[in-house]
Amino acid sequence: MMRFKAMxxxxxxxxxxxxxxxxxxxxxDPLFQNLYDNATRFRDKPALIYYGGxxxxxxLRDMVLRAASGLQKLGVTKGDRVxxxxxxxxxxxxxxxAAHSLGAIVVPGSPMFKAGELTYAxxxxxxxxxxxEEDIFPIYQIIRNDLKSVESVVVTSLGEYLPEEPYPAFxxxxxxxxxxxxxxxxxxxxxxxxxxxxxxxxxLSDIALxxxxxxxxxxxxxAMLTHGNIKHRGVNDSWMHDDAHDYIHLACMPLFHVTGMxxxxxxxxxxxxxxxxxxxxEPEAVLQAIERYRVTYLCSITTMDIALITHPKFNDYDISSxxxxxxxxxxxxxxxxxxxxxxxxxxxxxxxxxETMSTMTWxxxxxxxxxxxxxxxxxxxxxxxxKDNIEKNVPLGEQGELWVRGPSVAAGYWNKPEETxxxxxxxxxxxxxxxxxxxxxxxxxxxxxxxLIKASGYSVFPAEVETYLYQHPAILExxxxxxxxxxxxxxxxxxxxLEPEWVGKITEEELVAWAREQMSVYKYPRTIxxxxxxxxxxxxxxxxxxxxxxxxx
Length: 553
Hints:
Layout: H1 34-41, E1 46-50, E2 53-56, H2 57-73, E3 81-85, H3 90-101, E4 105-108, H4 115-125, E5 129-133, H5 137-143, E6 152-156, E7 185-186, H6 187-191, E8 207-213, E9 221-226, H7 227-240, E10 248-251, H8 258-271, E11 274-277, H9 283-293, E12 297-301, H10 302-309, E13 324-328, H11 334-342, E14 347-353, E15 358-362, E16 375-376, E17 381-385, E18 400-405, H12 417-423, E19 424-425, E20 428-437, E21 443-448, E22 453-455, E23 458-460, H13 462-469, E24 475-485, E25 489-498, H14 508-518, E26 527-530, H15 544-552
Helix pairs in contact: 1-2, 2-3, 7-8
């Protein structure tokens, strides 16, 4: 008997007309097979536009099948893990679907990973092949002797598919070719193969992605997302946005993250839309791209939206082609929302997690409630559980823990049965977020059970940062909290007790500099404060909330 009951779906009365009332994801084929359909339907239509360089749907299909053949020669078969350490570029799209064509599991990793993070992700996932950029390869060389499963490395340049005169101007100095080496295979060598003739036998229940998400304890966990999960996301996004093959997406959100991946990779793959691919976010370059390529849709985070609308040249560019913008990461300040509304744009905020392939609730464009993360989307069930008795749902308007269930919820955590059992319960995922629901079904987030830090839209869990800090021999004890930052939302701060023999021999600034080399730019502590001791409970547990209260005061 199921102990945990969903709330009555009062939100369905609020759904727009174009949202489906019933039915399930169409067909049994995984999403990568849509490439064949799109290549036939939209043969010469641009699938990707990379700073003016165009790859048509037919060309993308051919590239995917050739890359799959190259991976096959490296020994990749169904169930093997292929790690993608790439910024936004055509190679991400090609490698993503090439791996899936063989039934392999994609492990998307942040290009910002430093040595410790990269070592953990590769070893935990058991990655067989790495596909990465030339600037990241030196990190691999440092850690190569610590890796357990990697057999082959493919190195590419972000300049590989750039036209002679990129527009907007390309933001990085890159080479267009990589010199051959015995240490790696170059991207052209991977692509110099005849296309595969047959897809692997893949079902919707097979694992497609290991999406690493920071945890409340220790190292990150790999959320096991199936082909059914990612197909549901692509199909559902098209319903919610009223998306179609004539949409032109702008991908400036990282594709290695589920938000950028869902909005600007999975959804266009399902619909046959066009994606303008930008290697990173730069406000004026985004405005130039919207004007030149007549972009209709983009997804962003709050800091991006602020940077765009407040850019001194904002009014110099024509962005009238935009039909919709979605955002998340942190609440949008009312004055910024008003600036967008003054030009006829409403930014729709949503909510999701890596474990849910992102979106589970969303504000429909025509009925946004500011301050909320919207209503549950199609096929999603929600409950707001009593924190003291999780079998009970709280009344509308009262705070409880948000639980969600639906076709995009992951199958669990990779090789972590205890964490899986704790988080995934009877098909539900316990989000750890405190929320309320109003009479129309709109969800408002009120805080976090898990002491999550949101830095520039990225999720940072204190326990993960602490795990890396403890690798420094000077640190006896540490505790990490989030502190307010006007632009980034929150910054990371660490309180540190030094080992006695290190007192007076290392400065706080030196520890910050060390941490910068161990963790991603959004994750390392911007400030470190030395303490003689940290506040503790009677059982010896460090009292994070006391440090947080002191800082807030």
